[in-house]
Write a sequence for this structure.
């Protein structure tokens, strides 16, 4: 290692000086061996050690030249390595107020990042990530840990949305129009649009409109919703390459463009396809109205793929790939697909009412650090933690060294003292 | 920071660079057909240099040194413990996982204190030995692998050398796990260290006040040493320089783990330190980082559940942001599960594809009446099913459908898994010629396709087949088969 070489050299130079002081200066050039010998005999650094150190490691090949041990801390200030990024994530505005042609109480601006996520030592992020809470237009299979909070709103997304905004602090509401699925209820587009209108009336935050996944039906539903909700800047979730294959992409993209909405471009863990889809959308939708969903896999079921593709996408965008410079949405609720969120695993893994939401939290936090801008979430506790962490990560300089300076000998309070009754 | 020389990044290292330094005799002693193949594996970190006996000979000393340097990770690899009971931390080659892969999974340490009662017999408190055993025995089987914890961290809350020494002795007696000794008073530390002087524990920690004595101990007992400088990177870097000059080479950096309002500083400090090492060529930052999510437990008036929750998500954050070792407190399964799984996941090789090969897979020795099941080729889905089927034992056929590496639920929603694809996959697999029963078990999450599949099977020339909707999760397969297999020969169309 070059650095080590330099260090040895420095040590040798210091030694030479020391030897000069001691009046045993060599003739210009000192043989390394001589130095070692003299030092060994002189014991220049009497150490506190009286016990011979146990030698358990591999034999060192060459004895390192002894060092003159510092007696005070050597100053070596830290200068952070900072970088300039040629690219920046586009900003996007969700929702529109009355004066902007919609009916929302406020709009939500996302994106704009010009550094990797939360690199505050480079630049503070312009807009904090936001949380969209899921609601469904029909009964869906949900783990008990979530069901207990939302059971009473099943089939009533408007009521569900209201509690999500009032109680859980949703920045956005997602209305999943699952019942439009031709294989489920095949709810017609007009009826689905009515559901959307109801939610628009129930809450004043911007909306995300979720489809059923059928590329033809979703396009029909989205086109109708786009028309009915004209000017509201809803986010249509999602547009896919499949829609391109069945010929429905152009129509729905055009409708989004015409009625002033945003679209979510969904692809499955493949940046080339993400770029391909964006290029297709550019013909119909302004670039600042396109968000990407790169696929969120649950913790334990591929989160690492999601994490890495999000880091890659963000870095590529910052380095100048304009086709990836869109804000990103993550369907964090997918965390609940993991069996560890709901399955009985034995008493040592209980309670599930904590295990499940912690799973959603961990999934969300990994993607938060990878740069995601919008999180679709479900469990109130996971949402609460995400909100707190997002706020805490927004500004630096609040760490108090005294708080942790003595953690080593802190007596952590007995568990009983802290146990919450009956929860 | 002026004379920084950024090491040739591992991603730019070519097998040729390495090959030129190897003996190039194609002796095959390493088990590879030739030196070029070995060089490629070296660059991909699939083998270590020591697998090449000739390079270790005197005549190749220079080349060996050069190779060691070329292949050296940007973050120093440090061993805690000795022999079979050791763990390596650090050794990172890159900052971002997608640049190559992360190596040496973050080590998870759990605390015991020197004031815990030895046995539970006379106390309601958790006993030292029980807690050590609990750490040792923690195991979760995840897709066929046992995930476990790594290290015992012994903290001196007594601040009394004798008490600490006795606790360390007691822990050392009952476990061979690698150890971290936590005491900021060098006298206390030395007393404990004497009790495990041959076990190479990680010493926690050198500070601006005690660094010299800690350095002496680290040198005397040949131990790695943590450097603690809470939220002060200038001090941290200065201490590192000082300790290196002092002769301590195995350092572990602690910029402080702050929860709540200090979290941003924590994340930024960890990131800055790692970035300076990986991107800025700052060798003084090129050491493993230690995080202490256990600080979530300090001064909190919250419930134990709330604190364990906080500790767990802080651990998750720090694993994503460059921690190489973590000290934690809660041993609650629900809190540790996400930690051990995220640890496992983030250290997998990102070059490994998302999908597995599609086609027909057999388990056990299936015959003409063995159950036929279907799943998708998303790696995590497949491995989960595979692990479950192996756990149950028995003989099965499994058709793996090519959904372009997407899980069942997403593939059904996104039309990657359609009735048509399923029928084609079954047909192509040739399983129809191997079985007599004409029953296909599909995942519960694909239930809505069941009717269509029977029609599509007809279309591909497999008439009279019946689709059975299996459980929502492959963990339920055994029970499902108990109840439904062999299928009754009832309705005829």
């Amino acid at each position: 290692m070059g650095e080590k070489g330099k260090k040895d050299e420095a040590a040798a130079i210091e030694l030479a000086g020391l030897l000069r002081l001691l009046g045993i200066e060599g003739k210009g050039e000192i043989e390394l061996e001589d130095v070692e010998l003299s030092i060994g005999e002189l014991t220049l650094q009497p150490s506190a050690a009286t016990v011979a150190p146990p030698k358990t490691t591999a034999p060192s090949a060459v004895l390192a030249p002894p060092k003159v041990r510092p007696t005070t801390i050597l100053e070596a200030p830290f200068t952070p390595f900072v970088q300039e990024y040629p690219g920046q994530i586009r900003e996007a505005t969700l929702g529109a107020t009355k004066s902007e042609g919609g009916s929302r109480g406020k709009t939500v601006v996302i994106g704009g990042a010009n550094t990797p996520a939360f690199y505050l030592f480079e630049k503070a992020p312009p807009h904090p990530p936001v949380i969209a809470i899921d609601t469904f237009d029909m009964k869906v299979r949900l783990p008990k840990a979530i069901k207990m909070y939302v059971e009473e709103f099943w089939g009533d997304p408007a009521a569900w949305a209201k509690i999500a905004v009032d109680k859980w602090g949703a920045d956005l509401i997602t209305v999943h129009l699952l019942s439009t699925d031709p294989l489920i209820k095949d709810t017609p587009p007009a009826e689905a649009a009515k559901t959307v209108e109801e939610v628009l009336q129930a809450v004043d935050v911007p909306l995300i409109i979720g489809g059923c996944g059928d590329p033809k039906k979703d396009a029909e539903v989205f086109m109708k919703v786009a028309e009915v909700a004209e000017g509201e800047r809803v986010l249509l979730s999602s547009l896919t390459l499949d829609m391109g294959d069945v010929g429905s992409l152009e129509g729905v993209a055009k409708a989004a463009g015409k009625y002033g909405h945003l679209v979510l471009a969904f692809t499955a863990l493949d940046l080339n396809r993400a770029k391909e889809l964006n290029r297709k959308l550019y013909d119909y939708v302004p670039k600042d109205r396109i968000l990407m969903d790169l696929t969120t896999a649950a913790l334990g079921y591929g989160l690492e793929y999601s994490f890495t593709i999000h880091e890659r996408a963000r870095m590529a965008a910052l380095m100048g790939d304009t086709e990836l410079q869109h804000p990103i949405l993550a369907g964090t609720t997918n965390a609940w697909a993991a069996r560890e969120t709901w399955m009985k695993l034995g008493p040592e893994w209980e309670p599930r009412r904590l295990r499940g939401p912690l799973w959603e939290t961990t999934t969300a936090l990994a993607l938060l650090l990878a740069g995601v801008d919008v999180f679709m979430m479900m469990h109130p506790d996971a949402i609460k933690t995400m909100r707190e962490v997002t706020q805490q990560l927004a500004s630096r300089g609040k760490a108090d060294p005294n708080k942790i300076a003595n953690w080593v000998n802190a007596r952590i309070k007995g568990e009983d003292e802290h146990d919450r009754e009956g929860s | 920071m002026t004379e920084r020389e950024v090491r040739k990044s591992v991603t730019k290292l070519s097998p040729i660079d390495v090959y030129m330094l190897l003996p190039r005799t194609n002796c095959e002693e390493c088990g590879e057909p030739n030196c070029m193949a070995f060089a490629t594996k070296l660059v991909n970190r699939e083998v270590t240099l020591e697998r090449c006996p000739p390079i270790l000979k005197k005549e190749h000393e220079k080349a060996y040194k050069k190779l060691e340097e070329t292949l050296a990770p940007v973050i120093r690899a440090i061993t805690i413990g000795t022999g079979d009971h050791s763990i390596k931390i650090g050794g990172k080659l890159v900052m971002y996982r997608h640049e190559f892969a992360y190596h040496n999974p973050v080590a998870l340490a759990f605390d015991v204190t020197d004031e815990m009662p030895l046995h539970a017999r006379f106390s309601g408190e958790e006993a030292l030995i029980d807690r050590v055993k609990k750490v040792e025995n923690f195991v979760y089987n995840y897709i066929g692998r046992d995930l476990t914890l790594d290290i015992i961290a012994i903290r001196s809350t007594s601040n009394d050398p004798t008490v600490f020494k006795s606790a360390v002795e007691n822990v050392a007696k009952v476990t061979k796990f690698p150890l971290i000794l936590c005491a900021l008073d060098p006298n206390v530390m030395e007393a404990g260290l004497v009790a495990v002087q041959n076990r190479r524990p990680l010493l926690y920690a050198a500070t601006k006040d005690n660094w010299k004595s800690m350095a002496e101990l680290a040198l005397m007992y040949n131990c790695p040493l943590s450097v603690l400088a809470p939220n002060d990177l200038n001090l941290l870097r200065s201490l590192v320089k000082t300790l290196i000059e002092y002769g301590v080479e195995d350092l572990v950096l602690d910029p402080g783990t702050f929860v709540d309002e200090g979290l941003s500083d924590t994340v930024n400090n960890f990131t800055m330190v790692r970035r300076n090492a990986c991107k800025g060529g700052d060798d003084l930052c090129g050491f493993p980082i230690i995080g202490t999510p256990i600080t979530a437990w300090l001064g909190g008036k919250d419930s134990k559940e709330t604190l364990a929750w906080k500790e767990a998500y802080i651990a998750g954050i720090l694993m994503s942001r460059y921690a190489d070792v973590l000290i934690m407190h809660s041993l609650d399964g629900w809190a540790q599960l996400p930690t051990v799984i995220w640890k496992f996941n983030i250290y997998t090789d990102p070059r490994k594809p998302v999908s597995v090969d599609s086609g027909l897979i057999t388990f056990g020795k299936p015959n003409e009446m063995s159950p036929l099941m279907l799943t998708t080729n998303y790696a995590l889905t497949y491995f989960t099913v595979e692990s479950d089927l192996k756990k149950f034992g028995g003989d099965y056929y499994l058709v793996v459908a090519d959904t372009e590496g997407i899980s069942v639920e997403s593939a059904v929603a996104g039309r990657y898994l359609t009735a048509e694809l399923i029928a084609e996959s079954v047909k192509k697999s040739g399983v129809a010629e191997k079985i007599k029963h004409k029953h296909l078990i599909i995942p519960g999450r694909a239930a809505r396709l069941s009717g269509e599949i029977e029609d599509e099977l007809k279309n591909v020339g497999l008439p009279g087949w019946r689709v059975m909707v299996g459980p929502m999760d492959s963990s339920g397969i055994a029970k499902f088969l108990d109840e439904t297999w062999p299928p009754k020969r009832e309705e005829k169309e």
Residues 1-6 of chain B have pLDDT under 50 and may be disordered. The longest helix of chain B spans residues 304-320. Chain B touches chain A through 130 residues (CB under 8 Å). Chain B has three domains: 10-71, 77-346, 359-484.
